Amino acid sequence: MVHHQFAALGDPTRLAIVEQLARGPAPAGDLATPARMSLPAVLKHVRVLEDAGLVTSVKRGRVRECRLSDDALVAVAAWTAHQQALWSTRLDALGTLLEDA
Amino acid sequence: MVHHQFAALGDPTRLAIVEQLARGPAPAGDLATPARMSLPAVLKHVRVLEDAGLVTSVKRGRVRECRLSDDALVAVAAWTAHQQALWSTRLDALGTLLEDA
């Protein structure tokens, strides 16, 4: 469900993590998070992003390597484009109506 | 900030309201919300969407008329497209690297 993805992105720390991972994979310890945020707190945010299907992570030794899911943001982009298309169709129809009036 | 918009859309009731309003304006009382949700509860969700800049509403007599903001979802669409572009550039660069190896 796309609202889970929106909820996951509705937090500034998680949004920043996604922005960083869009530039390339990174170990959880290297994620740019607010100063003084503990690694367990960071990993909790990573878990929320994983649950929403936006991020995948693999543990290699003591490091958890994080990357964007291959289809991350596809559902968000599709939902957004669909609503915008509906809305502009509606605005166009309204425009035609006003021209004809 | 786009994370406020994501947070506003991260709730199934509010997502459904946006989907309905993309098809055209509606009075708050006609918004398709879960059965038994009170009008004050609906108006609270509308307020969250207004605070995020996604919806505007005008009170006409006893009815609060709601509509999608003209630039609703523009920031969401732009953010999403930007991250996807960064990510596919990264994947392309990785592909070239692997081909050259």
UniProtKB/TrEMBL annotation, chains A, B:
Domain HTH arsR-type: start-end pairs: 1-88
Protein name listed in UniProt: ArsR/SmtB family transcription factor
One Pfam family it belongs to: HTH_20
Domain of life where this protein originates: Bacteria
PROSITE patterns: HTH_ARSR_2
Organism from which the protein derives: Aquipuribacter hungaricus
Family annotation (NCBIfam families): HTH_metalloreg
Coiled coil, from the record: none
SMART domains: HTH_ARSR
